[in-house]
Amino acid sequence: MDITPSRAAVLQALDAIKDPKTGQGLSAAGLVRGLILREGRAGFMLEVAVADTALYAPVRDSAQAALAALPGVKQAQVVLTTEDAGPPSPSAGPTPRKAAVAPDPKGELRPTPTATRPDHVKRIIAVASAKGGVGKSTVAANLACAFARLGLNVGLMDADIYGPSMPTMMGVFGQPRMTADKKMIPAEAHGVKVTSIGLIVEPDNAMIWRGPMASSAVVQLINEVAWASAQAPMDVLVLDLPPGTGDILLTLSQKIAMDGAVIVSTPQAVALADVRRGAAMFRKVGVEVLGVIENMAYFPDPSTGAPIEIFGRGGARAMAAEIGLPFLGELPIDIALRQGGDIGAPLVASHPDSSVAKAFMELARKIS
Ligand SMILES: Nc1ncnc2c1ncn2[C@@H]1O[C@H](COP(=O)(O)OP(=O)(O)OP(=O)(O)O)[C@@H](O)[C@H]1O
Ligand SMILES: [Mg+2]
Question: 102 in a domain, yes or no?
Answer without folding.
Answer: no
